[in-house]
Sequence to fold (725 residues):
Amino acid sequence: MPLEILRTDFVARDLLTDLRAGTENSESPVEVWHFGQGWSRPDSKGRWAFGQSAEFQVVTLGGARRFWIECKPYQRLLQDQRVIVTLEGTAIGAFQTESKKFQWYQVDFPDSLDEGVVNLGLRFEHTRSPQEAGHGSDTRRLALRVKRLALVRNSLPPPPEKGALPVVVTREGLRVVQEGRLFINLWSDRPVDRVTFRMKPQLIDAQTPEQTAAVGVSVALRDPEMDAELHRIVAFPGSSEDDLMTLDAGWAQGPLQLVVETGPDMIEITDLVSMGLPVQTQPQLRPPPTTTPPDLIILLLDAARADHCGSAYGYHRDTTPRLDALAREALVFRSVFAQAPYTTCSVSTMFTGVAFGSHGVVGGRDRLSEQETTLAEALRDFGYRTIGVTATPNNSERLGMAQGFDLFEQLWEGTDWMTWIDPMYAAHRIEARVGALEKDEPLFLMAHLVPPHGPYTPPEAFRLWSDENYDGPCDGTDYYVRTIRGHRDNVSPEDLNELVALYDGNLRFCDAAVERILADLEVQGRLEHAIVVVTADHGEAFFEHGHLDHNSTIFDEMLHVPLIVRLPEAFETEGVNLDQLASLEDLTPTLLGLVGANSSSRTTGVDLLSGTRRSGMLLRTAESHGVFGFRSGRWKLIADRQGRLAKLFDLEADEDERTNVILRYPGVVSAMAARWARAESLLPPQLEIVDAGMTDQERDMLRQLGYLDSEPEVQRPVTSRGSGE
Fold:
């Protein structure tokens, strides 16, 4: 059974980096050099080191004995430059520049470096700013212009500027011509028992096999998601006639990674295959075939972050007593995330089951293509009466979200601002609309409620956690939120506590509306045998990572959402994995599976009740912020606005996403980048999107909801990651 080979990455034992712009290795996501304070951006001549010191980190495979630097001093210094080199903050040597031209200098380490991340630094005795030298207005105190850096073993000279590619793809497989660590990222849709491949030595010049001593090559098969080694062997290519290598995979499924520690001899790896089982699919939880399709109720709470949703999600405040009661008789999925922290993209994903890279609704006024099949369309074709009630212009007919609804009521039409955002008004309208239906018609109801979304101004009866002695500026209004967005230093702990208390009050207010909606449905005979779903389009941030509300980051406070699914008694729920990684993209195929309807051929989500595992998910911020990412169950990889992989978080050890470990796990970075690229490659083609524009009324409504006055727009990054382009 052939394995899917996703990509390969290589880390050399002797390291060289070129600091000149345009020379970086754009083909590999694994960056082993990271430049901290004291460095300029790269240009055609390298980077400036400025200030009293410049710091950088390097991922090394161990064994390096010498540090090389190709540099020249700032030409307007009044004396020769002396540079002290530090390792982990301790001086290990120094050199003095001998020329105004670029030249290599070296400092030996006291001992050979161990494998891992090392912290190096340069300290400068002399600095001078161009302004001080009468040469422009730049006030940075420049010290050194650096072209290249290197770490080498055994007192070797620095590597050549242009060496051979470390890995060459041949017709037979991969040829490795440098010493280092090779990551071969693999994928299998089926459980794998073992992986086999062939490894042959590549002879140099006229050597014969008898003249070449066999050198041991360490090969490990790893599960990159768990960061776990499955099996390791030491192979001796060419030592016998049988060059077939076998590694036990332990019935792993999904991502696998072959890690080869290459030696001084060239080797070739071919014939990668696996032995496994056919794909096993668990039976889906379908209703009994003789029953009428159950009513389907979706209550969408705008900006409800999961970890504030009462006891169902472990929150210390009683914010959602009605949801908690519902959760006690429902499936509570604990690891559900929006792909994007804003409504227009999220609702398009949620109600089509299609990832944003395919449906293409990423701009604030993008209109969903009529060629996409929505959940409402599929259910209407299956015999349902479909009703939509929405309190936000970000889920509107103008943006294409009315597709498939027999009735789509936009609560702002014919009402004032304070009325249409009131969830109790939404409950009143839902009661009237549902009450007008024939009782024997199966119902699909989608209700999008604004609170807990800002403004955080719940009625007094729901301000249960506000401090009665608080006399600061926080009143929860959109005006206040605008004044502090981007200004965390202006917010006192008391102000922030009050803001969160008001948000929690909004949640309690919304929960009361949910209680009324469910009570009305019960009176109308619609609740007992209904599938009831409660979820959110995105979360809400309170400066956990320096940002407020939503739109701007892909950290979990903006993406983690509740998903509560109450099923009628006829459905069997035993064995459902409530901790599985899930996306809002999975809602439509899951619900269609429950009622026995078919999903669109463009669906990219998975049925959460089918036993199918989701390997990962693409992430993005709002169009104006330009941050993209890929998350799995354990890891989250984030690219910066230039498309460079900048952050990796181990969500198992660091659920608050505080420690960037991108240098600590180069193999995981390689595997996650490979999975990211694979996920994008499997997306259906993006459909044509049109800009729906905006009426004056919609502009006013969005401004009242806190939009249109957020952070200034920035240039979109030059990257295809998750953009669908």
User: Anything to note?
Assistant: Residues 493-523 form the longest helix (31 residues). The CA atoms of residues 696 and 702 lie 10 Å apart.
